[in-house]
Every structure is written in C-alpha cells, then in structure tokens.
C-alpha cells in the first residue's frame, strides 16, 4: 500500500480510536505542551526571554516572550508547529529503539521545566502536575503498562500535530487574522497566512509518515526477536 495512504489511514484511525478512550481529551494537551515549549526553547536559544506560558482546557496555549524583531521573531513563530511535529517523531524513533522509557522521561522533563519556570494559571499547573505524577507511576510503579501508555501518548501526539496544523489551514482560509502562528508569520513576512499554514501541515504529514515508519520498524524488530535458553 502507498505509504502516504497508509499514513492518512492510520491518522484517521488514531483520531477515531483515541476519542473512544476515557479521559483521552485530557492528554491532548501534550501536543500543546510540546508546541509551546518549542516557542520557549527557540526564544531562549536566540537570547530572548520567556515571560510565561499558559495552557488551556480547550487544548490551546500561549507563550509570552520578549525577542528582537526581524529574523529571530520569525524563527520563534516557526518553532511551535515544527518542534511539536519533531517531538512526535522523536517519540516514535525512541519506540523503534526500545527506549520508550526515555521518551516518558523526556516528556516528564519538559513538563517539569514548564511547571517550575514558566506556566502560571490554574489549569496549566494542575494538568502538568497530574501528567508528571502519572508518568512517574507508569515508569516506576506500573512499568508493564508503560509501553501501552507510551504508544497511546505517541499516537495521540502524532494525530494532534497533524490535526492542529489542519485546523490552522482552515483558520487561515476563513479568518486569516486569527490563524495563530501563521498570522504572526504573515505579519512578519511577505507570505500570507495560508502559505505558512499549508507548510506547517505538509511538514506535520511528512513527520507522521516518518514516525509510522519507525513504528512499523519497531514492531517488526520485536516480531523477529528470538530468545534462546
């Protein structure tokens, strides 16, 4: 089967299946966490300062930062969607290497940094605290369930990275001034919001294709493993 068709079918299946899992809506903020952390990380790398980050119950978020205008501001605006897709790809890469515990530690570390340094406000702090606590339980108290929990997070993040970019395309088509990062980039560059939204969407799809490649590679590796005694 064509790899792009396989990617689209898996994304559609993931979107349907994860919505049937109880409380799955709470975990959709993981993609938002990576998105806002991407803005913050690039801000710091470019010698800017992160003022605060807010996470909301509707799976949206905002990063308030101070950065020099021009090229640096463009890079910060690019970072959210791109790094969220790359984080999702990294989760599947670690799974293919049998290192899902590392992936959980990475997600926990990002959540801890955001909680201690940047996130203020009721929902964001409560969500991050609960996510960190649950990850610790999965890593140290109930490790047998850790793999399945990790795959749930990985597929949910993968799906949200693509769907978030797709919703951005919709916003850019009908209300371009409200198209988030694409609108910011339209103000900073000659390209319209729709072009930036489409680029984010295509990059998310490309990362999803690579991520599923790592997933199938990891599954084949487990099937071909033979234990001799």
Please supply descriptive tags for the structure shown above.
229 residues; mainly alpha; two-stranded antiparallel ribbon; 9 helices; 2 strands; globular
Can you give me a brief rundown of this structure?
The chain has 9 helices and 2 strands; from the N terminus they run H-H-H-E-E-H-H-H-H-H-H. The protein is mostly helical.
Task: Describe this entry's structure for a reader.
This protein is mainly alpha-helical. It has helices at 3-20, 24-27, 29-45, 71-96, 100-118, 122-141, 146-174, 180-188, 193-223, and strands at 49-55, 61-66. Strands 1-2 form a two-stranded antiparallel sheet. Strand 1 and strand 2 form a beta hairpin. Helix 3 (29-45) packs across helix 5 and helix 8 (180-188) crosses helix 9. It is globular, with a radius of gyration of 18 Å.
């Amino acid at each position: 089967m064509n790899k792009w068709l396989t990617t689209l079918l898996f994304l559609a299946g993931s979107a349907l299946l994860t919505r049937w899992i109880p409380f799955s809506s709470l975990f959709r903020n993981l993609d938002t966490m990576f998105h806002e952390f991407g803005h913050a990380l690039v801000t710091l790398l470019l010698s800017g300062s992160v003022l605060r980050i807010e996470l909301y119950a509707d799976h949206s978020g905002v990063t308030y930062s101070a950065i020099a205008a021009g090229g640096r501001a463009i890079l910060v605006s690019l970072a959210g969607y791109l790094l969220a897709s790359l984080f999702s790809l990294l989760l599947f890469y670690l799974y293919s290497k049998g290192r899902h515990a590392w992936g959980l530690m990475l997600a926990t570390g990002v959540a801890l940094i955001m909680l201690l340094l940047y996130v203020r406000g009721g929902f964001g702090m409560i969500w991050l605290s609960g996510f960190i606590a649950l990850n610790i339980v999965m890593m140290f108290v109930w490790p047998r369930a850790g793999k399945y929990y990790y795959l749930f997070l990985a597929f949910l993040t993968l799906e949200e990275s693509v769907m978030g970019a797709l919703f951005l395309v919709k916003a850019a088509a009908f209300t371009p001034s409200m198209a988030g990062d694409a609108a910011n980039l339209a103000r900073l560059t000659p390209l319209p919001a729709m072009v930036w939204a489409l680029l984010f969407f295509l990059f998310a799809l490309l990362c999803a294709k690579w991520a599923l490649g790592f997933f199938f590679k990891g599954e084949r590796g487990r099937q071909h493993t033979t234990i001799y005694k």
